[in-house]
Amino acid sequence: MGTKNCPETPRQKMINMMYLVLLAMMALNVASEVLDAFRVVDSSLMQTLKSVDSKNNQLYASFAQAYEESPAKVQEWKDKADRVKALTDGLTNKITDLKEEIIMRSGGTNLTETGESVNLSQKSFMVNTKGDTIVIKKDDELNVPSEVMIRMKKAEDLKADIDELKEAFLSFLEEDSPIRQTIQQELDTSDPKMRLKEGAEKRTWEIELFDNKPIIAVVALLSKIQIDVQNAESNILTYLYSQIDASSFKFNKLGARVIAKTSYVLEGDVYRAEVFLAAEDTTQQPIILINDRPLKIVDGKGIYEVPATTAGTYKWGGIIKYKTPEGGFNSYPFEEEYIVSEPSVTISPTKMNVFYMGVPNPVSVSVPGVPSEDLQVTVTNGRIQQDGKDYLVFPTAEDINGRNTRVTVNANIGGQPRSMGSMVFRVKQVPDPVATIAGQASGVIRKEDLLAEAGIFAALIDFDFDLKFTVTQFDITFTGAGGYTNTWSSNSNRFTTDQTRQFNALTTGSIIYIDNIMARGDDGTNRQLSPISFKIR
b/e string for 341-365 if b means 16 or more Cβ within 10 A? Predict the structure, then answer.
């Protein structure tokens, strides 16, 4: 060997080169024991592959049976399982085709096609996707695997396919699923870590597995990848099958429930109720939110209480949240309504059902269980209008010759009009008012009280309606000493000057007589009132 002080001769350089070639040839000369070991490993891997495949087929059969029993419940998970099978079969078949290509390029033989008879116990072989037996002629072939896998970039394509399968499998899992890490490890295609040695060269996943490896080793590695794929398939299938019942709630108590649309039914209507068997889980309580506030829960049931202070229809609702077996929550929104009615009693003395013309006649109409806005009230004589919660009736004609006025009530129930009944009323004129002076219609009056009054007034005695009459004319006749009489007239409700002068001349025992009294009411009618008389005391 040459040094700086002893330069290498051309002969020495040639010897050195031959030494290096010899070392390389020794490194490439794989011992037959190692090749036999790879042959045994690959055979064992293929047996394992068949076992995993058989296990997976049993899982697919379980999916099929579960689907037969409950299609709606299993449909989602069976569809995902079918997708897993399609992806896995596609990749494992592709790897099998890749093995066949490498073997055939290295001089392998398809015994099924050639019909040769070979003792397979002494040979390395594989079975392709068609079922043909392919024999490896040169277990130690190094060039073809590197050519196919590295230079033809088949290893790069395989890595991309494995990564695609891994992402597809992970998409079937929840973010916090414990088997995500298992799937990532089984289908890991990351590059190996660099060795902490100065000058170490970074190696890719493809180079690490397939570069400069004998064909039997590459075939065994590809078989191992197939097992990894099918193990991942098995884990995904087991998870998906567990989800069929995982989202099903477990209940331990059953009870009969009856829910009626209403407990208040009108005559002629139909009482309708839903009767069903309800399941409860006494080990956990639901969360019921009304206006984002939790409801009190008693024996698994929410207790909703609200004071009924004002009549009307009220809508309310909320969300029921129930914990799922996976630990999350399912939400079930709901809406309801209820009706608040005022306590009421109807007392109808039928002989006093009277409407008066010329005044608004108040009528109270209510139907228990039906809000006022769903009522339609009509009248056969005149018109009716709503006044707050009540109604006002304005009749236009007096009932005569046995004719009566009828008030009819209809209600909107369930979107359909329903007759609630009717009531008959009589229509009369407002009674005539009574003429009064100082609140008196007749009798004894003091002269001072008479002089203090400005005129005559018309009053409706014991009449509750707010109707006013105004006297438009009257005559006063005075009886004086000797029995003579004189009459003075007024064309309004006011005493005239002459009438007042006569009042001053009255003495005790004098009589005044008032007649020809006319009054006009707010309803537009003119009435002639009964005469009145007074004695001065």
Answer: beeeeeeeeeeeeebbbbbbbebeb
Nearest Cα to 56, choosing from 256, 308, 229? 229
Burial class (CB in 10 A: 0-12, 13-18, 19+), 186: buried
- Do residue 398 and residue 497 come from a single domain? no
Distance of alpha carbon 394 from alpha carbon 392, whole angstroms: 7
Please give the tally of structural domains in the chain. 4
* Whether residue 172 sits in one domain with residue 103: yes
376 and 318 share a domain?
A: no
HSE value, Cβ hemisphere, 13 Å, CA-based, for 243 = 18
* pTM for this model (two decimals): 0.47
Q: Distance (Å, rounded) from C-alpha 190 to C-alpha 72?
A: 40
Q: What is the pLDDT of residues 437-473, one digit of tens each?
A: 988 989 999 988 888 898 999 998 888 888 899 999 9
Q: Which helix (DSSP H) or strand (DSSP E) does residue 489 occupy?
A: strand 485-490
Q: Determine how β-strand 301-303 pairs with β-strand 296-298.
A: antiparallel
Domain co-membership, 138 together with 273: no
Neighbours of 198 (CB within 10 A): 5
Q: What is the pLDDT of residues 242-276, one digit of tens each?
A: 888 765 656 666 667 666 666 666 666 676 767 76
One domain, residues 144 and 104: yes
| Token output for 410 | 């209809």
3-state secondary structure 101-127: HHHHHCCCEEHHHHCCCCCHHHCEEEE
